[in-house]
Specification:
Number of domains: 2
Order of helices and strands: HHEEHEEHEHEEHEEEEE
Radius of gyration: 40 Å
Mean pLDDT: 80
Low-confidence stretches: 8-13, 15-23, 28-42
Distance between the termini: 120 Å
Number of strands: 12
Shape: elongated
Largest sheet: 4 strands, mixed
Structural class: alpha+beta
Oligomer: single chain
Strand order of the largest sheet: 6-10-1-9
Strand content: 25-35%
Number of helices: 6
């Protein structure tokens, strides 16, 4: 019986460990170590308020539709900063060209040709050192050129993300380590917006039919519209955090000071959440993508009822008076009222 109970406990422990392997460090970070907002919380008051939200009926009708499409980049451009020094202008330029040519030759094997390289010259300036000239009663300090520094940005275009590792390796062999950024480019962005527009128009028609079933004939409403479209790149959605535990009970017991160490900062890609979108195209993503969205908001206001003119009833009274003459004759005359 004890062995059976022990087996059950071991199974439960294994299940807990297996579940924890999928959580990672993101949800286990101490609050004091968060550099940016975004850490997952067990209890979220905002979510609870949304669940318990009280709806307020209105005679106005609002149709809000939002669509998002995740688009993989067609091409990528990695930008590296390269710095080279030399004793003369010619030798400095020659050393720089040798380093870049070495990278080009190395990347031809993975399909990155000469056309996929571009060089942006940032600066080419002489370096100076101080020369001391001693005289009988004084010293003179003079700046004299002792070499040149050439700084360039190397642009490398590629089409597949798995090529980037090869690019980093090739640059490292040429002692180029300063990666500035990676830009994402997509073709036919107009087609993406057109696709989102088609999806939203279809959704709007479905919602109009829904309101019609509820008894709202939107043809009897005045309509106002507002729309928006946007495009976000992965560089806009990287967040950082620090995962560490600095508590030392041993140091407290021995009453000794703790020398703090530099903590590593981790980064992760946090794209737009789908919770506020009605339509999401390509929702499952494996790598950072370009996120393109479109919002449409329609406001329907009841048309004012036309006031029917009331019929005007004119009452005309004709007044008459009678004149009796001395001889007894009767004369009838109309009374002038104006």
């Amino acid at each position: 019986m004890k062995n059976q109970a022990l087996s059950i406990v071991l199974i439960l422990v294994c299940m807990v460990i297996s579940n924890a392997q999928h959580k990672g460090n993101y949800d286990q970070i101490s609050r004091q170590n968060i550099l940016h907002s975004g850490n997952a919380t067990i209890y979220n008051p905002t979510v609870q308020q949304q669940i318990n939200k009280i709806l307020n009926p209105s005679t106005h009708v609002f149709i809000d539709v939002k669509a998002l499409q995740n688009v993989e980049a067609t091409t990528y451009t990695a930008i590296f900063n390269v710095s080279q020094i030399g004793p003369s202008a010619d030798s400095t330029n020659l050393l720089m060209n040798q380093r870049i040519d070495k990278i080009k030759n190395s990347l031809k094997a993975v399909g990155i040709s000469e056309e996929n390289f571009a060089v942006d010259v940032i600066s080419f300036v002489p370096n100076y050192e101080i020369e001391v000239q001693k005289k009988l009663f004084s010293k003179t300090y003079t700046e004299v050129p002792n070499g040149f520094e050439l700084q360039q940005n190397l642009h490398i275009q590629f089409t597949k993300t798995n090529q980037f590792e090869t690019i980093l390796t090739a640059c490292a062999k040429s002692e180029i380590y300063n990666l500035v950024k990676v830009d994402y480019y997509i073709e036919n962005i107009a087609e993406v917006y057109k696709n989102l527009q088609t999806k939203l128009l279809k959704l709007i028609e479905e919602k109009k039919a829904y309101y019609k079933v509820l008894g709202f004939d939107l043809t009897e409403y005045n309509v106002a519209i507002a729309d928006d479209q946007y495009c976000y790149f992965p560089k806009d959605f990287y967040q950082s955090y620090q995962a560490f535990n600095s508590v030392s009970f041993e140091a407290i017991k021995k009453k000794k000071g703790v020398t703090t160490a530099k903590k590593q900062t981790s980064y992760y890609y946090q794209p737009l959440s789908y919770e506020n979108y009605d339509v999401v195209i390509n929702p499952s993503i494996l790598e950072p993508v370009v996120q393109i969205g479109m919002n449409i908001r329609l406001q329907y206001t009841p048309k004012p009822k036309e006031a029917k003119p009331k019929p005007v009833v004119k009452t005309e009274i004709k007044h008459k008076y009678y004149v009796v003459s001395p001889n007894g004759t009767l004369d009838i005359k109309a009374l002038q009222t104006n």
